[in-house]
Amino acid sequence: MLPQEIIRRKRDGQKLSAQEIAAFVAGVTSGSVSDGQVGAFAMAVFFNGMSRDEAVALTLSMRDSGDVLDWSDLPGPVTDKHSTGGVGDNVSLMLAPIVAACGAYVPMISGRGLGHTGGTLDKMDAIPGYISQPDVGRFRKTVLETGCAIIGQTADLVPADRRLYAIRDVTGTVESVPLITASILSKKLAAGLQSLVLDVKVGNGAFMEKSRDATALANSLVEVANGAGLKASALVTGMNEPLASAAGNAVEVRNAVDFLTGRFRDKRLEDVTLALAAEMLQSTGLVSSQQDGLRRAAETLAGGRAAAIFARMVAALGGPADFVEKPEKYLPKAAVEFAVKVTENGFVTGIATRDIGLAVVGLGGGRTRPDDRIDHAVGITRLLPIGAEVRSGDALALVHARTDAEAAAAAAAVLSAYTIGASKPAADKTVIRRVLARG
Known about the structure:
By secondary structure, the chain is of the alpha/beta class. 46% of the residues lie in helices and 15% in strands.
């Protein structure tokens, strides 16, 4: 089957067969399909969409482009979570060890940043020595011995997605529901999971800014996952402001360590993390209700067991053995720190969250091309939340940059992203809705 004919059929709005999709994915994997053809296919899907059957076929073909793991020898349930991406979304770093500490196994295969959103893998790469793309043997050993491992796709896992993922990032096709669905689920199916929970972000810092679009994506993920044989549910959560008060790579890792150890926890971040933990524990059968899951997760976090598991995971994957005790000793630091000061009195009434993410990219903390190197040290911390009261001269945030000029540019972007008003706004819901498989 000629790739250009498959592209043409999808361009013209026709439904592709499972065989056509499998043939195209095989070409993506082997390299016989060019980058231009991959980009054209992605754009055709972006404009014309895919049926549920097409999305299932694409997901399964991408899963089968590499190895599929088998965890049947583990003595507990195997589960995972995936976020569709946002700003300050470092939930995975806390969630995996929390759920592992409750008795599940979490083999978390994560991705790099897309567009203005940060990537879990880029965050883990900020830890010196951490092997974010280990061989399968080390991955399995880490999961068995610590309960979780946060890694990226190895060369043997979903190679088709690795290539498609990078091309989507630079061709304006990130927001396609079927492509997002297949990208996420192919990795999760290859990980050999028994259940999956999706965190679908909605708001001005998410790929899906409108509620109906986020709900459509949540439904697609849940329905395609179940169609591919994986038990799944989703939570739609708000992204009209950064989730953590930090955005960047090393700074979000530090924020996560502070969260796990109880030094500091952002309230919205805690709400989302515990809600997802409860959903994961319920999906595995380890708890019987959402309330029981919330209680178990909160107790595990408070007791320090999650922090201990995170420390063991980091060490098992090559990072420092005392990383959790001394993160400041190991995480890279930017040369310049610049406080962004507000020029009026009032309350934070809105944040253009995507612009915060783009400011991090501008600092060097994200990519504009697939082969760009990331500066893990740069970022923005102490981001004030919506509802915070400010007076002229107060700091809205702290920019961490390589140069004074880059710091000034990022500070201007942050200041422009914040709206200050006279009255305190009502708080938005953090967890908006739960989506389950129909039938």
